[in-house]
Each structure stands twice: as C-alpha cells, then as structure tokens.
Specification:
Elements lengths: L5 E4 L3 H15 L3 E3 L4 H8 L3 E5 L4 H15 L6 E6 L4 H10 L3 E4 L4 H20 L17 E6 L7 H15 L4 E5 L7 H5 L19 H7 L1 E2 L6 E3 L5 H6 L2 H14 L2 E5 L6 H9 L2 E7 L2 H16 L8 E8 L7 H5 L6 E6 L2 H10 L14 H14 L1
Parallel strand pairs: 1-2, 1-3, 3-4, 4-5, 6-10, 6-11, 7-9, 7-10, 11-12, 12-13
Antiparallel strand pairs: 8-9
Helix pairs in contact: 2-3, 3-4, 6-15, 10-11
Magnesium ion binds next to helix 6.
Pfam families: AAA_31 (PF13614)
Organism: Gracilibacillus oryzae
Keywords: ATP-binding, Nucleotide-binding
C-alpha cells in the first residue's frame, strides 16, 4: 500500500525537532517546510494530511490554510490538523469554520494528537485502498469558505444595485446557502430602496470593534431581509463616516464575512477608490454590469485599463452581465462583443413593467421560493443563478 503523504508546516525549530522526535520513529520521513515555503511547495508535495502549527499571527495561518484549500481544490482536500501553543477559542472557531479537522493545544494534548493522527492515517489509507471518492458535501455550498461575488460597473444607473440585491435574494431562496448582502456605496447607499428595509444598523456599527472583528460582531449588526431572510450589511449613508472607513477595514470585514457565510454579495459604487479596489481584489467573481450604449463600453475600457495599470488580475473572475437590453438599445450584444475581453455570462432585458411597480411599493423582486408570478427580470436572474449553483 502506498505511503500516506504527510506534510508538517512549522516555523519554530524547537517545536519542529520535538515533533520529529515523535513522528519519525513511527512514520519515517515527514516532509517539513516553513510557512513561507508553502506557496512554492504545496503543489509538488500535494499532501493528504497537513499538520499546521502556530504562525506569526493567527490571521496568517488562516490565510495560509485558505490558500492551500484553493490551490488543491475540492477533489482531494487534505486532512488539516492544527497544533497551537495556546487554547485560543476564537482561533479554534475560525479554524473549524474554514474546515480544519482537528485542533490540539501543545504540550498538554500531544498524546491525543498522536493518537488521532494514527487513526486519521488509517482512514486515509483505507480511502486510498478502496479508491473511494471523497465524501460529497451534503450541501450545495461548502461551509465556512464563503465566496465573494461583487457587482461593479464604471457607469451609473446600469442596474448594479437592482441586480445584486435580486441575485442575493435568489440564491438565498433557491439554495441552502447562508447569504450576506453588503452595500459598499458608503456615501449614498441605495440597496435599502430595493430591499424594503430602513437601514437602522449599518457597516459603521462595526467600526468600534473593527480591529478585533469576528463573526459574532457581524451577526450582531446585520439586519434581515423580510422575505428571503438573507442577512444585510447596509451602508451608513454618511459621507463623514464613509471617510473614516479604510481599505484595511474593508479587507478585514470581507475576510470575516467570508468565514461566516457561504455567499457574500457586494454592491459597489462606480468610483475606483481604495475601498472599491480592495473589494474587487477580494472577490471570486466580479459581475461587470454593462448597458448597451457607447458610454458604457468606453467606461468598461477605461476600467479594464485602469485595473491593468494597478496590476489587478481579473482574468477568469470578471464576468459581464448585459442589462437593460431592449429594442431601442443603441448597440447589440454582437457589437459589444467586439470591444470587451471578458465573457458575457448573462443578458437581462429591460423589464419596466415588472420592476417599476415593485420598486415604487418598496417591495423586493423576489419574495418566496415558489412564487407563481414573478417579474420577467426575476425569472431571468433565477435562471442565471441556477446555472451558478450547478
Ligand atoms: N433589467 C431592468 N429592467 C427594468 N429596469 C431596470 C433594469 N435594470 C435596472 N433598472 C432600473 O434602472 C434604475 C437604476 O438601477 P440601479 O439603481 O440598480 O442601478 P445602479 O447601477 O446601481 O445605479 P447607481 O449608479 O445609481 O448606483 C432603477 O430604477 C432600476 O429600476
Ligand atoms: Mg447602485
């Protein structure tokens, strides 16, 4: 039977030799690298079991684990064991959320760790032997590793807010995913209009705790959308407060939200400031909303050039959604295709009849999972969302 590939990630020399003393006599060679070597080596080693130890900061360990998970992909996710010198409940919770299988505090739990490792190795070997596929996840969404999907455009009024809110509601209604919608139009807001809520609480309420932000803080500040019950982090709608929010705040916020939800949907303003930029940087998918007219195309070009100059890599992440399509549109999608480099993933028609009355009443475009009559736009978005949920 093949050896189980085990990797030890350890920056502390003393701990490393201590662990080697325990592991080598039993398992022979144990591949050991430092945390800074992980990014370079993980592909080559492709371990089945990874033993992580405390990094310099808790955050850096979490980032590293998330990186490894991304790199290795779903098919053969390794078993993660985390060894820490401190009984840190918050860190433990964060680690469990991102999918770490076991957590031991050294030196007290060394014996438990070794015992558990032995059993894990047996299980991995068994799985290898019977060529069992890894267990499929029971839910449509992978827990604890939320995806960030943002809606952006370089031109206003194209439907970012309408589509991002509707997209988030639809995911919440059509899947088991936990969904958070964030309005990052910090000065003016806007999403509350389409969600039928008053923004009593907002992102600004997280500022006092932003340096130690955790999932509980987020859960305490979010509001609920009445119908779909998705969570909302609304805009403070205040220019002065908006000014105090920095890109570091936003990065911290988004990473925390990513751990707390399966899906985080963001509505972005058109101005490319550090906040918009960092939100785009954090996004797995950027939906660029495009209307069919010359100004929209020229803004799209400006945006893509700017992102290139800022060295942001959007390849494979940027997806174009054509919106407000109708017979009187200045351009056709065929015209547009000549000018854009990113794929068009959806085309939504102008649906004034379906959309406007609901907006006027302050009601969302989706309310229940099984609705008989929904606006044409809601149907089109539903169709697109279902392709995304697979
Ligand atoms: N497919 C559509 N069918 C009908 N109306 C639409 C459609 N898409 C957007 N609209 C309308 O266009 C207007 C602007 O939409 P929205 O506020 O979502 O745009 P935005 O890109 O967020 O604009 P802003 O730059 O102001 O943030 C709204 O009144 C909305 O009802
Ligand atoms: Mg908007």
């Amino acid at each position: 039977m093949e050896q189980v590939k085990m990797l030890l990630v350890c920056d502390n020399k003393q701990l490393k030799s201590q662990l080697h003393e325990e592991l080598l006599p039993v398992y022979g060679q144990v591949e050991t690298i430092t945390s800074s070597e992980v990014r370079k080596e993980i592909d080559r080693i492709s371990p089945q079991i990874i033993i992580m130890t405390d990094g310099e900061k808790d955050e850096s360990s979490i980032e590293l684990i998330e990186y490894i998970q991304d790199e290795i992909g779903d098919a053969e996710l390794p078993v993660f064991i985390y060894l820490s010198h401190k009984a840190n409940f918050q860190l433990l919770r964060d680690l469990i959320r991102i999918g770490v299988n076991d957590f031991f505090v050294l030196p007290e739990e060394l014996a438990n760790f070794l015992e558990r490792l032995e059993r894990i190795i047996l299980t991995v070997k068994e799985r290898q032997h019977s060529e069992l596929q890894p267990l499929p996840s029971s839910q449509a969404m992978k827990k604890g590793k939320g995806e960030i999907i943002s809606f952006y455009s370089g031109k206003g009024g194209v439907g970012r807010t309408l589509l991002s809110t509707l997209f988030a509601q639809t995911i919440k209604l059509e899947s088991t995913a936990s969904v958070l919608f964030i309005d990052l139009n910090l000065q003016y807001g806007g999403a509350e209009k389409y969600l039928g809520v008053e923004s009593a609480r907002s992102i600004a309420d997280l500022l006092p705790v932003i340096d130690e932000l955790n999932e509980n803080h987020v859960h305490n500040v979010v509001m609920k959308e009445t119908y779909s019950k998705m969570d909302l982090l609304l805009s403070p709608r205040d220019a002065e407060i908006a000014e105090t929010i920095t890109e570091e705040h936003i990065v911290r916020l988004l990473r925390t939200c990513r751990r707390a939800y399966d899906m985080v949907v963001i509505d972005l303003p058109i101005n490319m400031d550090p906040i918009t930029f960092s939100a785009l940087e954090e996004s797995e998918v950027i939906h660029y909303v495009l209307s069919l007219d010359t100004p929209a195309i020229s803004n799209y070009k400006q945006v893509t050039n700017l992102l290139k100059r800022l060295q942001m890599d959007t390849e494979g992440r940027m997806k174009v959604i054509v919106n407000r399509m109708d017979r009187s549109s200045e351009l056709t999608t065929a015209d547009v295709k000549e000018f854009i480099v990113d794929p068009i993933v959806a085309k939504f028609k102008e649906d004034r009849k379906g959309v406007q009355p609901l907006i006027n009443k302050g009601e969302p475009l989706r309310k229940e999972t099984k609705e008989k009559k929904i606006p044409t736009l809601s149907k089109q978005v539903r169709k697109y969302v279902l392709t995304q949920l697979k």
